Known about the structure:
By secondary structure, the chain is mainly beta. Among the domains are: 3-179, no CATH class; 180-287, Immunoglobulins (Immunoglobulin-like, Sandwich), CATH 2.60.40; 525-551 and 556-622, no CATH class; 638-816, Chitobiase, domain 2 (2-Layer Sandwich), CATH 3.30.379. The protein has 13 helices and 52 strands. The strands form ten sheets. The protein has an eight-stranded mixed sheet, with helices on both faces. An eight-stranded mixed sheet has the order 43-42-44-49-48-50-51-52. The longest helix is centred in the last third of the chain and has 22 residues, at 656-677. It is globular, with a radius of gyration of 27 Å.
Amino acid sequence: MKTGLLLSLCFLGSNLFSQTKVTGNVVEYFGKEKIVTTAEGNVLYHFGEGFFLPTDKKNGTLFNGQDPVAWQYAVGKFTNPNKQKGDWQAIKQDSVGVFSQKDMKSAFLFTEYNSPKEQIAILETTGGTRTYINGMPHEGDHYDFGYTLIPFKLRKGVNEFVYTKGRFGRVKSNVVIPSKSILFTKRDLTLPDVINGEKDEKWAAIRVINATEKDLKNLVITAKLSSGETATYATDAIMPLFVRKVKFKVPAAKADFTGELKMKLILSDKSGKVIDETEIPIQQRPATIHHERTFVSKVDNSVQYYSVAPALGSGPKALVLSVHGASVEARNQARAYKQKDWAQIVAATNRRPFGFNWEDWGRIDALEVLAEAKKVFNTIPSQTYLTGHSMGGHGTWFLGTTYPDKFAAIAPCASYPDIATYGFDKGDEMNDQFKAFEPIKRSANSGRVKSIVKNLKQTGVYILHGDADSTVPISQVREMRQILSTFHPNFCYYEYPGGEHWYGDHSVDWFPIFEFFKRQSIPNNKDVKEIDFHTATPAVSSTDYWIKLQQQIRPFDFSNINAKIVKQEINIKTENVSIFELDLASLELKGEITININEQSLKTTPDKKAILALKDGKWTFINEINTADKYADRQGGFKFAFNNNVVFVYATGGSNSEKEWYQNRARFDAETFYYRGNGSIDVIPDNEFSLEKYKDRNVVIYGNASNNKAWYLLLKNAPIQIDNHQIKVGDKILKGDDLASYFVYPRKDSKTALVGVVAGTSEAGMKATWANNYISGITGFPDVMIFKADLLLNGLPDMKVSGFFDNNWSTKILDFFN
């Protein structure tokens, strides 16, 4: 997958590299010309010199929106270090062509290129969390995947590139002139295996580079196997200057075969004119051996894959969902397991090898794979299990406690329960002093495993950990063993003698785990007589067997429903619960039922739909949920806008700088969601949006009421209104040209869809929306955040408003700060 990148860096090992100069597309050194190419084109310029700016600011985990360079760009104070060095220090590439310095993990890197003319180019970069190109933010390549290709317009004259601190503290970067203005790139394919005997076409995805300033629409991809079969698919539109991972169909093979096939891909327009062609390898296998499958995600209509260690033999089988550790591909996770004669084992991706720590979109990926695998393999519903290693051990704790009725048993291996308190230098303690941090912290409560661990009461638990693990300390699971011992009747614990973090495939494929699984099954609702359900929000976790939480009193604070059946009575105690449901029919009780709830008694019958609501301190039955209010299928939390086949809509009104910024701001989020979550999001201008065309889909608006035409369609009656001069919140008005906001609000024409907003007042305000740390599996984002541009420098002291809408989506309970 990294072939093109390696070619582009083929001679960077020379320690004489800094003596090169560039003319046109030809690199000249020692009087000799050499053309350096990538798979996508010719290298115009290699960056060999620059400046770096060390920083000593600690980043928090739940809140980390500070960036001094972003602040400088927002308020117009950025100065090219070549003109005014300040605290910037000179740096050159090392002998292997990499910018590397001991302080680089917490530093910014600046490079520049003086272009003789204006032209469209591609920035090929590895390292650095994000990249600014002439002040515009783009996603970087902080995991060194080698995927990052950013089409942009080179200015005539000086072009500035700033790379923000990266995970590994190293950066490589080139400017590339693409061989075509529209072309395939084979970096980062998502491919299924062609399965012998299966007649359906399979989903796949490949990236297409749009190095033009026009939208690409009505594209068609034709896939031709070397065995002769063909499939054609009208694929996704691509916004200007963007690389999108688009869908296509892989044809089914007519004849059985095991091995590698060649597949030719042809990109054409709707008239049939060929735009580009490429050839890629694809595997054909029988379904009886380890293999990969694909599906289309409901998050963004993108293609995702999962891996399978199929069960031996025929007939209905159990299902084991395995969730991988950091940097591990699902295909490698599945191959760590030997095939079983009683269970299908499937490995989800978390959307990437690092992904989202199995929270947020990683959580959704796990649930989508679980549902897909149940459908494909027709597994035994009551025999569904969950296991994982390292980050996947955390995923096992998190998913198991969050969805207690989905798994008969769980087995966390080499695990830690809570990502926010695991590791060092998390930095959140520095934010606890600020009142504005409280709603941010609350909005991430769904990841606090130890606060909801009692949900595991009906779930078997097997804990496996090496007693010499130097990556995840044994203390992490010894604490969980102690907590489980206070209430849990069915758990096993084993410390592997001398076991490091990984001590072979039996670190996950541990025989006693699977023997333990065999003895567990998910009980029927009627057999569950006691429930102690805990959740931080019904938007993430609403159901525990026959109880469903629909609405909280305090959003994202922990809720508890403790219920016990005694003959014809159901005794219930609640905390932070406003509306909940009881699935009485599934309990198979006879005759009149008495519900004793918080010292109040209600009577009902088992065939009646039992929805209970708290009104004026008293519980009462209601006939249905008011879907205009917050309820389980539509809650707050800004991050939840990025789901439900979301579409990004950017402003085309206002000044030229507004148009350019908001288009790029939407592009930046799409780049980040692609990189971190293997995503593929529709990004459109506001003049193309209509309520009917994008019916029931989530929408994220980039821009305000002054410049985004979609605002009136979606938000004209919202209690928060933003224009270029002020932000109105209910009956309060915040004035200023440097205010920014993220907020989420329901689509009034839908019972389930949400609208997210990324907007600011004037130029400084819109640029203050730089941080997109909401596309992360750990950070906390409440319903509303309004802040000054200085937050990018100073942090939470410059937060003006944060918090949650109340249950009818009004602003009464939002927090305002000086």
